[in-house]
Automatic annotation (TrEMBL):
It comes from Lentilactobacillus otakiensis DSM 19908 = JCM 15040. Its cofactor is Mg(2+). Gene3D superfamilies: Decaprenyl diphosphate synthase-like (3.40.1180.10). GO terms for biological process: polyprenol biosynthetic process. This is Isoprenyl transferase. Catalyzes the condensation of isopentenyl diphosphate (IPP) with allylic pyrophosphates generating different type of terpenoids. It comes from the Bacteria.
């Protein structure tokens, strides 16, 4: 079945990527272009998160994973880090009622216990308050790094081997999936589509294991300018890709 996009193109509603992951980049440049402080870009970026959450949920995306703060982002100036740490507080204060109304469940992955107390509280409260929602999962990567995730998974697996409860010869892809921070997503752990905004074309330590067969789509649009129409373009681009997962195309 097809539905018209905002720009009058045909979106196949039976081929919506179940898991969309986004590297939300370009907030700083958006602000600089307007001679505003960088945090103005993050503030506007937070509004984009609200818009895209609604659009993704309406379109039938099942998991939306957003890279909100990486383990490397601590290197930024103190004021910017503080502002970024305050954003989830603002965001969830404003937006949890809408999330509940739209049946969206909030989840987080990353080293949450290293965040300032009020950020932890905002995040944990949002997870609790939306726990009964059964629609789209809005999964924030916060103080997340994929190498850290993989290192921790290897440590967990190593401990199981040492304890004699896991035979090293029985370690499979599934064992690794089960020990990563995305394990709670089960079959939906691997993104079908990974989007990066702002013209940069790199992965920046995001979901390295999980994107083995993801379709990667890049746009020059800066995150604060990203909107429904650009998101739909990215989904259309995904729908034109030929996903083979290492196999060959089968004729229909
Ligand atoms: C990258 O842009 C963006 C970030 C490091 C932060 C992303 C955060 C948001 C979009 C808001 C998050 C909202 C919630 C609810 C947690 P950049 O600063 O690297 O931009 P630049 O490359 O142009 O400098």
């Amino acid at each position: 079945m097809f539905k018209n996009t905002q720009d009058n193109q045909q979106l196949n509603v039976d081929n919506i990527p179940a898991h969309v992951a986004i590297i939300m980049d370009g907030n700083g440049r958006w602000a600089q272009k307007r001679h505003l402080p960088r945090i103005a870009g993050h503030k506007r970026g937070m509004e984009t998160v609200k818009t895209i959450t609604k659009v993704a949920s309406d379109i039938g995306v099942k998991v939306l994973t957003l890279y909100a703060f990486s383990t490397e982002n601590w290197k930024r100036p103190h004021d910017e880090v503080s502002y970024l740490m305050g954003l989830p507080v603002k965001f969830f204060n404003d937006f949890v009622p809408d999330l509940i109304k739209n049946n969206v469940q909030v989840r987080v992955m990353g080293l949450i216990d290293q965040l300032p107390a009020q950020t932890q509280k905002a995040v944990n409260d949002a997870v609790k308050d939306t726990a009964d929602c059964t629609g789209m999962i809005l999964n924030f990567a916060l103080n997340y790094g994929s190498r850290l995730d993989m290192t921790m998974a290897v440590q967990k697996i190593g401990r199981q081997v040492k304890a004699g409860i896991l035979d090293p010869n029985k370690i499979t892809d599934q064992t690794i999936d089960d020990n990563l921070m995305t394990s709670f997503l089960g079959q939906l752990a691997d993104p079908d589509l990974l989007i990066r905004t702002s013209g940069e074309e790199r992965i920046s330590n995001f979901l390295l294991w999980q994107i083995a067969y993801s379709e990667l789509v890049f746009t020059d649009v800066l995150w604060p300018d990203f909107d429904k129409s650009v998101f739909e373009q990215m989904i259309l681009e995904y729908q034109h890709r030929d996903r083979r997962f290492g196999g060959i195309k089968t004729s229909k």
